[in-house]
UniProtKB/TrEMBL annotation:
This is YXWGXW repeat-containing protein. Keywords: Signal. Pfam families: WXXGXW. Residues 175-315 are annotated as: Disordered. InterPro entries: YXWGXW_rpt.
Amino acid sequence: MRLFSSVRTVVMATVLAAVPAASFAGVFVNITVAPPVLPVYTQPICPGDGYMWTPGYWAYGPDGYYWVPGVWVRPPAVGMLWTPGYWGWSGGFYAFHAGYWGPHIGFYGGVNYGFGYTGYGYAGGYWHGGVFAYNRSVNNINITNVHNVYNKTVIVNNYNRVSYNGGNGGLTARASAQEMAASREQHYQPTSEQVSHREVASRDRNQLASVNHGRPQTMAMSRVGARAENQQGRIANGVRSGQMTAGETRNVEGREASINRQVRQDRQANGGRLTQQERQQVNQRQNNVSRSIYNDKHNAATQSHPQGHENGRER
């Protein structure tokens, strides 16, 4: 029995090495190690009407689990809701069940992703007359940008941060008849923006659980591609807490400004767009800056008079 188990593990490792990280959310990937607990983070402000919240989750790549930040995205069609993916224990492995868009919320393992995803259904809003209404009690909404809002208290019975269903220490939720019916409806796969968002996270080593020890560098974003905005927030937190010195701040801000200049120049040369190669170059430079911010905030150098205290839920 041990020999058979070892062979299965070797086979799975070989398969994982052969499958690109970008494709992992579209297939069932079987892992023997449970995903980390869900980190606690603050939801960014909704960018505007029509955006839907997709919570962050742990995905898996050749180097192990990595965090895909929560992000506001536009649905593929009016009336569609996002059912998050989840990890479930089955047949001796943790298998990832990919998320999807559909007219109703399906089963997502009973995982409490927060912001309306309490483990069952979705309490963050609903479609009415082709317009999405946002529940301000669980969403970070600025009524200047978003006008169709309401307030309804959401009762949460599951405060567990466990990110998987079944197995040792996992959640014990089971799909209801309503959720089973939703799973049989016509679905949309993750949008191209969501796929791109996951691919960027898979290439950022600071998102690896083995590197960040369950506290990802980027936990959430206001929209896909808003890395520069997110990193400015991390720098500001480092300055306020005193974890980043004036010299360290100047260095990373100068590099951010250089990246922004590169993006502007590339867009001007290509009719307002970036080529795939240019996007990869920008992403690599942002990864390097992200790593520098992390190192600056965790080295021995500190500012003697910080301007405040960093929010412990954000890094």
